[in-house]
Amino acid sequence: MRLSSEAKSRFEHDDLMDRGRALIEESIKFGVTHMRAFVEVDFGVEMKCLDAGLELKAEFRDKCYIQICVFAQDPIFSHDHGSRSMTDLLENAIQKHGVEVLGSTPYVEKSLELQEENMKWTIETAKLYQLHLDFHLDYHLNEHQKPMVYSAIERLHRINWTTNYEQKEFRTVVFGHCTRLTLLDGNEWHKLRQEIRDLPVSFVGLPTSDLFMMGRPDEATGGSNRVRGTLQVVEMIKKYDFNAAIGINNVGNAFTPQGTCDPMGLTSLGVGIYQAGTKADAQILLECVSTRARQAIGIYVEHNINSNLDIGSPSSFVIFGTKGSRNFRARKSIQELVYDAGFERTTIFEVCYDKKMHDPFPIPPSQWLSQAVQPFADYFHLTTLPLHIHEVLGSFLAYTFINKVVAPQVSIRLFPEKYSKFSAERKLNWDECWHMQLVLSWFFSFGFRPFVNFYGCTFILYELSSPFLNFHWFFDKLDMTGSKPQLYNGIALLFTFFCCRLVWGTYQSLRVYQDVWRSMHNQPSNSASINIDALANGTVSALDAAAGHSATPIHNDIMRFANDEFIPLWLGFTYLGSNLVLNTLNFYWFGKMIEAVRKRFQPAKEGRQKDKAIAMKSTGANGKTRISVKESEIRRRNALDDNEPIAAVS
C-alpha cells in the first residue's frame, strides 16, 4: 500500500492516458472485448484516474466496452486526512457521466465495525445511484474470522436489491478475492448458496494477484511454508451452481508485478491451479473469461460458449489462429485452446449479422403496403422490395411531380418566349426528368432481386455526365451555340463521361463480372448461425464453415439476402451481356461526344468547288460523230447543324 501511494502521488494526466491506452490496446489484441476498469478515487489522486478512465472509455467505444468502476482502495471511514470526507469525494465521482460501478475494499478499514460501515454505505449508495456493485472481500485465510460475505448478502436482501434482470434497476454484485471462502466445507458452501438465493451475485477469482500477495513466507518455518488461497471457481460452478469467473485486476504494479493482460493466460494457469484437465473443465474455464465474466459485470448472455450467434444479435468474439494447421500446434478444440491459446488472434467487437437492410431513410415501410406488394415480390424473387416499396413509390411520385408540375412552371418563368414556342415533344425533352428516373429504376431493380446489390449504387455514377449532356442541348436551343458557357460545359461533359463511364465503369464491370461468376457458383447454407467450435480451427475452410458458407473463396455479402436461392444461368449471362454491350457503347458514345463538342467551336470549312466534266455526243452534217466536254459548277455546301434539315442539291 505504501509503494502504491507513493506511485499515485506522481500521477499526471498524460502519463495515465499513455499507460491506460497501451493497456487497453494490448488487451484488445489478446481478444478482450469487454472490461471492467477500476479507477481509484482518494485524497491523493482525487479525480485524476477517473478523468483519464472516462476519456479512454470514449476513445475506445467502437473497439471495446469499458465499464468504469469508481473504486475506494483506501479506507472510507478510518483514513488519516482529518475532517475531509471520503464519502463526499466518492459521491462526486460516481455522479460523473459514464460511471457504472461503485466498489470498495472493506478489509482496509481499521476495525470490523468500520468494515461493516464501509459495506453498508457502499451498498446503499450503489442502489441509490443505480450502479453495479463490486467488493473485494475476505482477503485472508484466518479460519477464526467469519467471512464478511454473509453480512454483505444479508444487507443486499434487507435493502431489496433488484433480482430481475429485465427490470430497469437491475444491477449485478461481484465479490472479488474472497480467499477466506476456500476454508469452507461442503455444508458451508451449500448454506452460502442457499442464502444468496436469486441475488445477481458472482464470485471472481483473481489468481495472479492471490498467488503473489498471499505468498509471504511464514518466518517461524524458515520461509518454506507459504500457504496461499484463491477461489476454486471450477468447483464452485460444477458442484455448487455459483456464477463465477476469473480475472486480472493488476498488471505491472506493486500488487502484481508479473503477468500480462491476456485472459487466456488465466485459463492455462487455471488448468494447474484447479487441476482442471477434462474437456468439461476446459469448457468452464473458457466461460470464466468470456460469457460468465460478462454476466458478472451485468451483460446478460448464455453461459454455454457453444451457443450459436443468431441473426440479428450483436456479437463479440475472437478468432484464434491465422495460419491454421500450418502452425506447429493446431488448436482445433476448446480444450487445446484453453491449454495454450497462442498469440494469433482476431478480435471482433459488437458485429451484428442482420437479415434486415440498414436503411438510412427515416420513415419505415407501411405494413399494409409491404403486404400488398409481397405476392409480386415473391413471384419475381424481389426479396427486399417489400422493405423499400414506400421509397420506390415515393421516388416515382416525386419525379412525376417535378416533371409535370415543377419543371414547366420554372421553364415558363425563366424562358417565357422560347418555351411557349416549343412543340409538345420539345417541351417534354425540355422538362426531361424521365431519363434519370428510368435509369434509377433499372439499376436499383437488381438490388431488389436481390442481385449484385452493391453495384446498383455503384453504376449510378454513370449518370454524372447526364446533366452536362442536357445543358449542351439547352445551350443550342437558347441560341448559345459556340459560347464560352457551352465550351466549359463541354469540357465538364467529356471529363465526367471519361472518368465515370470509361475508367470507373470499366473497372467496376470487371469487378461485377468476377462477383457474378462467384455468385453463380455459390452453395447456399442451411443455417444462418455461426458455430463457435468451428472457429477453433484457423483454416480458411473452417472459418467459412463456421459462418455457414461453403469453402469457395466468395465475398459472402454478395449473397447476403439470397437465402437458399441460386443465381440462375440466364440471369447471370443476361446481366453480363447487357453490361458488355453498354461498355462497348460507352466508348462509341465518347467518340461521338468529342465530335459533337468540337463541331460547335470549329469554323465551317468552305466547300471546295468541283468541276464536273459532262461528255456530249453529237453527229455533224458530214455524218461524223463529235464529242464535246462541258464544264458545270457544283454548288458548295456548308456544314449543317444536326437539328436542321439538309437542303436539296440543285
TrEMBL record:
Subcellular location: Membrane
Membrane topology classification: Multi-pass membrane protein
Keyword Transmembrane tagged: yes
Any coiled-coil regions, as ranges: none
Stored PROSITE patterns: TLC (PS50922)
Organism domain of life: Eukaryota
TM stretches of this protein: 452-475, 487-507, 569-590
UniProt domain TLC: residue ranges: 328-602
GO MF term list: hydrolase activity, acting on carbon-nitrogen (but not peptide) bonds, in cyclic amidines
InterPro entries in alphabetical order: Metal_Hydrolase, Metallo-hydrolase_Enzymes, TLC-dom
Region of interest (Disordered), ranges: 607-635
Alphabetically ordered keywords of this record: Membrane, Transmembrane, Transmembrane helix
One Pfam family here: TRAM_LAG1_CLN8
Record GO cellular component, one term: membrane
Protein name (record): TLC domain-containing protein
Source species: Monilinia fructigena
